[in-house]
Amino acid sequence: MGNSVALIDYGAGNLHSVENALRKVGAEVNVTADSDVVARAERIILPGVGSFKSCAEGLRAVDGMVEAMESRALSGGVPFLGICVGMQLLATRGLEHDTTDGLDWISGDVELIEPDDPKVKVPHMGWNDVGLTPHAHGNEVVQPGEAYFLHSYRFHAEDGADIVAMTDHGGGIVAAVGRDNLLGVQFHPEKSQAYGLDLLSRFLEWNP
User: What would the CATH number be for the domain defined by 4-205?
Assistant: First the structure.
């Protein structure tokens, strides 16, 4: 398996920055809205910025894309990375404004961050520590460090075994989820300087 990556373009991702970061670490990047390309991809990245609802609707509006992702990543086992809202879309539901169905690849809900300390601001914006959970063993991609976050909603995983990493923002917040060949990170690797580039480099080498 090589370093070719299908970066999914569905009108809801910070594609240019992610593409540039991937090229810096030697990836062959195919920015694509073509489900046939995704159905043959060696590695898949799903970015996402904005609301859960708009991202979910945008992804489903691309003909055959969800089916191609399910065939290639969920069933086919190729390495998959969701970034920010791209990670959140792995959940069962998003509870932002309305209830919106996610992909339901990793059971859980995406809900508003409600800090324990009222002085802690939402959105969660800026650099924060990423700490591994006991369930992170076997996942070589996410490592402890400091990453850049920008979000108002958090992933509440139903099964703690799916939580790879945590951060803290007025209470614990899931920083990464994963199972088998599936991985999602709440932070932005493309904005996380050396830490993020190292993560993307490890993703290119990952053979789950």
Answer: 3.40.50.880
